[in-house]
Amino acid sequence: MKTFASLVPRAGRLSRRAFHAAALGAALALSGVAAAQFRVEIAGVGATQLPIAIPAFRGEAAAAQPISRIVRADLERSGAFRIVDAPGALDETSQPSMSEWRSRAVDALAAGSVSRLADGRADVRFKLWDVVKGAELAGQSNAVDPSDLRLAAHRIADTIYEKLTGEKGVFSTRIAYVTRGGGRYTLRVADADGEGGQVALNSAEPIISPAWSPNGRELAYVSFEKQKAVVYTQDVGSGARRAIADFKGSNSAPAWSPDGQNLAVTLSREGGSQIYLISRNGGTPRRVTNSQAIDTEPVFSPDGASIYFVSDRGGSPQIYRTPVSGGAVERVTFSGSYNISPAISPDGRTLAYISRSGNAFRLCTLDLSAGGAQPNVLTDTSDDESPSFAPNGRLIVYATRAGGRDVLMTTTLDGKIKARLTSSNADVREPVWGPYGR
Questions:
Q1: How far is CA 100 from CA 86, 95, 145, 360, 382, in A?
Q2: pLDDT tier at 47 (50, 70, 90 boundaries)?
Q3: Which residues face 189 on adjacent strands?
Q4: Which residues contact 330 (CB under 8 A, 6 or more apart)?
Q5: In whole angstroms, what is the distance from residue 279 CA to residue 275 CA?
Q6: What's the pTM?
Q7: Per-residue model confidence (pLDDT) at position 422
Q8: Pairing assessment for the beta strands 50-53 and 108-116 based on DSSP bridges
């Protein structure tokens, strides 16, 4: 019988390069709780970027985290800002000379401080100025546990981003991803820049297809710990988990409904791989697709009315759409003979997916609101996988291969600004961006 592994790069989103124990040759021996450490390498130039200066925060040299550097990296990674060098000492109490900063071609300025309180917490303060107008735009003061300094920095970046763009920032959200090494697979939850990773699950068998619940409190994923694919859900805070789909055959590719009450999954319980709906509490699944083809990789539209999925019903893998309640199946992708791994932007207007061109697998987007629109190829790499939108729809995280390693990347929707989240000690795959609400 034909299996999905012969159709697309992964069985229920299993890596093309056989992301399983037999393929592991990494020198790293994970301890079971070791966290991948990332550095961010940003490349590209955006068409329109706001020049902003962010001097080192007063007192950050003695703090556990480099606050200003985290803020600068967040804003630069968004593609909306150009960082201008800011020598000298400033903090939130300063009265900066706006004419001097304008002479340096700076449009916005942020400065702050971090100090230790008597109870051991860190007092993090900052202020944001509009240099062009000579006006103060925002200021904050927060007392945080030292372990939350990175989160505090991300929230400062969120405030700056929102004040200057009018859109909500995503820097304090989280991503989940899977690392492999030393014969182990580890599901991790980390900051949106890949740092601060915490272990959610460690296994000798593959873990694939993580998916965030809409409230950000749970992850669904596929584990092979029973020597077959089983779908689990897990509470991110407590670690409590349960098997949601453990039927005869394969159980794979979970996707949460927007209301968080159901999951779409791919099951082969009736012989072929088809899309089903199942309650978040388990139970009897309801079949959504009914074909002789392989239907898999479901993802809900933001309104919950439709499911996008991959099928070879037309002879080659393409992306289709079907109403959740039943009805006609509509083909979505037409350019190219091999299109997989759909992800839908939060506003429902953009489809991100992986398209094969020759032997290269590249990240593309398609404007769903424009009939007959042609896809945009965002990358020049050849082994892209697993696109996932940021909750504001302005960035996409995906996996690829670079420098002989499996790495994570983010890109702006025009592909002009890319950030490589370079892990120093692990191969990293299967990224998925979490929702707001942390």
A1: 12, 12, 36, 50, 46
A2: low
A3: 176, 198
A4: 320, 321, 322
A5: 14
A6: 0.90
A7: 62
A8: parallel
